Amino acid sequence: MTMIDVNALHLAFGAVKVLNNVNLQVQAGQSFGLVGESGSGKTTVLRCLAGQYMHWDGQLRIGGHALGRKLDRARCREVQMVFQDPYGSLHPRHTIHTVLAEPLRIHGMDRERERVESILAKVGLNSSYRFRYPHQLSGGQRQRVAIARALILEPRVLLLDEPTSALDVSVQAEILNLLADLRERDGLTYLMVTHDLGVVAHLCDQVAVMQHGSIVETLTTEALCNNAAQHAYTRMLVDSSRSYSRDMAEA
Ligand SMILES: Nc1ncnc2c1ncn2[C@@H]1O[C@H](COP(=O)(O)OP(=O)(O)OP(=O)(O)O)[C@@H](O)[C@H]1O
After folding, report:
1. Ligand 1 touching residue 42 (CB < 6 A)
2. What is the interface pTM, i.e. ipTM, of the complex?
């Protein structure tokens, strides 16, 4: 079953075309990576799906339902986004309990304390974290809270915008493993923006490569890792990532 269907998506800001005929399909339970140079439009695709822009053209579907341009409650229950910077995305004067309970209140969901404790456990934090503030957490713990907040309404789809790039290298793998476990346990579908082909290799089944607002190539992660990319730009990305890893190993 196709869970995310982006069909002929176009978006411009004034005269500047940011997305030009973007097409991608993600099957239920799959993890799909979006890579490409800075400014190529990756985050903008996620923002259209998350309901943050209203002036796009094309068709967007989640779980077979066509998305309107306005964000409604039904979409929040179906799709949530996790941002790159967990500190910026958590209110500094709200406790973790308040952060996690807010969506439940908005959506009139019961058993607040039980749901908050259970989602914290799911992301590997014990219930004492409910009473802490974001500045009392490490970067990795903050990102766990951001993931918990995205999951508390039990969506089927997570849109992940560089979910580990603001984190210390030592905790990046922890968060990637957590995301992999959550997907497997709950059958979640991921669409993930990253600039890191290592992250793609670790977490994604398929990957689309964007350049100048369009997808230039879609391929399986296996093909990417086996050097089977066709498009010159994809090959360049793979080569530069390999030489970067080599330089790091030699340094
Ligand atoms: N609200 C906006 N108004 C005008 N231009 C915008 C707006 N949001 C994004 N853009 C432009 O759209 C283009 C695509 O941005 P986007 O953030 O999607 O790129 P990206 O591929 O995610 O890049 P990065 O990897 O650096 O995050 C950029 O040129 C950006 O300047």
Report:
1. yes
2. 0.93
DSSP the chain: -EEEEEEEEEEEETTEEEEEEEEEEEETT-EEEEEESTTSSHHHHHHHHTT-----EEEEEETTEEP-SS--HHHHHHEEEE-S-TTTTS-TTS-HHHHHHHHHHHTT-S-HHHHHHHHHHHTT--GGGGG--GGGS-HHHHHHHHHHHHHTT--SEEEEESTTTTS-HHHHHHHHHHHHHHHHHHT-EEEEE-S-HHHHHHH-SEEEEEETTEEEEEEEHHHHHTT---SHHHHHHHHHHHHHHHHHHH-
Q: Is the pLDDT of residue 90 over 90?
A: no
CA 183 to chain centre: 12
Q: Is 39 in the pocket of ligand 1 (CB under 6 A)?
A: yes
Q: What is the dihedral of CA 133, 139, 142, 147, to 10 degrees?
A: 180
The pLDDT assigned to 3 comes to 97
As a whole number, mean pLDDT of residues 218-240 equals 88
**pTM of the entire predicted model:** 0.93
Gap from CA of 160 to ligand 1 centroid (Å): 16
Angle, helices 139-151 vs 112-122, to 10°: value is 130
